[in-house]
Amino acid sequence: MNKITRRQALGTTAGALTALGLAGATAHAAATDSRAAATPAGTVDEVYQGRRIRITTGQGGHHGGHHSPGMPTVLIDGRELHVMRNADGTWISVVNHYETFADPTTLARAAVRELQGAVLAPFAPMGGTA
Predict the structure, then answer these.
(1) Which residues pair with 13 in a beta bridge?
(2) DSSP three-state, residue 78
(3) Which DSSP symbol is given to 101?
(4) Quick one: DSSP state of residue 82?
(5) Residue 45 near residue 36, CB atoms below 8 Å
(6) What is the distance between the alpha carbons of residues 92 and 111, in angstroms, rounded to a whole number?
(7) Beta strand spans in the chain (E)
(8) What is the gyration radius of the CA atoms in the chain, in angstroms?
């Protein structure tokens, strides 16, 4: 009698699922790499919860250019989200002023969640106009 045991069947199934998982992870990594190649280094262009987030670095802010050249410009649906970098390297925004984030992308996603579909109002720096 040449019967397969339950242990052998589970082992074979686990091996097949592992192989499929590795193949899927490899395909996902390849897709991620191809998207990264299409976007210039240091930029983000994504749709998160139905809102378009665009982050570019190096230009400074749109409102008067008073940002230093290395500051990112964060746009949600084409409107600028004013961001600030803390001394410890974390980030805050006018939407999430009391919550810090590790990077501008995480900060922008949190702002989208906090806005709950509302349009981002123009930011007017002190003494200036929007």
Answers:
(1) none
(2) coil
(3) B
(4) P
(5) no
(6) 10
(7) 44-48, 51-56, 73-76, 79-81, 83-85, 91-93
(8) 23
Q: Classify 15 as helix, strand or coil.
A: helix
CA dihedral 81, 84, 85, 88 (to 10 degrees): -120
Tokens of 8: 């052998």
Give the closest residue to 125 by CA, choosing from 78, 83, 74.
83
Backbone angles phi, psi at 92, to 5 degrees: -135, 165
pLDDT tens sequence across 84-103: 999 999 999 999 989 999 99
Sheet of 79-81: strand order equals 44-48, 51-56, 73-76, 79-81
Give the chain's length: 130
The H or E element containing residue 12 is helix 6-38
Cα–Cα distance measured from residue 27 to residue 11, given in angstroms and rounded to the nearest whole number: 24
Q: How far out from the chain centre does Cα 37 lie?
A: 16
Please answer whether residues 12 and 76 qualify as being in contact, where contact means their C-beta atoms are separated by less than 8 angstroms: no
Task: List, for residues 36-80, the tens digit of each pLDDT value.
Answer: 434 456 789 999 999 999 999 865 444 444 456 678 999 999 999
pTM: 0.60
